[in-house]
């Protein structure tokens, strides 16, 4: 599985921990930055993660800022991107199983590294269950196209 990572300065350290964790497990990781704790603008990194997915360069993405809020808002502006901000493992599993989320967002100043790595593992191993949930996710796509739902 190919994973794309992106973070601003508030998520940089957690991104580094996640990158090492995923590479140790054999995932193919694409790191869109940032590459230091110097201050940067989180929407650019949310966009970079979403863009890699929409271009088919990655299967799932992980985007991190200080709270996870801003980068989640930015990524979710991209049609086809379903970014889920998770602070515990149940939501991470449901975001994949029910919502077919393709980006996990995390708060580097909110969620500790140990819990964040558990959230990542569960997000990446959970499959979309489809069925009635596919119908609901399709309604989100309809909204993106400006269609009636
Ligand atoms: C940067 O200071 C901070 O605003 C950013 O990382 C994030 O928390 C925004 O939502």
Summarize the structure.
By secondary structure, the protein is of the alpha/beta class. The protein has helices spanning 12-24, 42-54, 69-75, 89-97, 113-125, 132-144, and strands spanning 2-7, 28-31, 60-65, 83-85, 103-107. The longest helix is centred in the first third of the chain and has 13 residues, at 12-24.
What does this structure look like?
The radius of gyration is 14 Å and the shape is globular. The longest helix is centred in the first third of the chain and has 13 residues, at 12-24. The mean pLDDT is 98. α1 crosses α5 (113-125), α2 (42-54) crosses α3 and α4 (89-97) runs parallel beside α5 (113-125). The protein is 46% helix and 16% strand. By secondary structure, the protein is α/β, with parallel strands linked by helices. The termini are far apart. It binds D-ribose (RB5). The site of D-ribose (RB5) has 8 residues, from α3. The site of D-ribose has 8 residues, from α3.
């Amino acid at each position: 599985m190919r994973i794309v990572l992106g973070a601003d300065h508030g998520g940089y350290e957690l991104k580094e921990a996640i990158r090492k964790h995923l590479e140790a497990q054999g995932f193919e990781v694409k790191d869109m930055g940032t590459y230091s704790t110097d201050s940067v603008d989180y929407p650019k990194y949310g966009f970079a993660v979403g863009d890699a997915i929409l271009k088919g360069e990655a299967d799932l993405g992980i985007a991190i800022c200080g709270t996870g809020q801003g980068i989640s808002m930015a990524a979710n502006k991209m049609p086809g991107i379903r970014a889920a901000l998770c602070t515990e493992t149940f939501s991470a599993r449901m975001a994949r199983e029910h919502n077919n989320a393709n980006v996990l967002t995390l708060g580097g100043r909110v969620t500790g590294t140990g819990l964040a790595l558990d959230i990542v593992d569960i997000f990446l191993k959970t499959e979309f269950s489809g069925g009635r949930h596919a119908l609901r996710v399709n309604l989100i796509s309809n909204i993106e196209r400006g269609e009636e739902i």
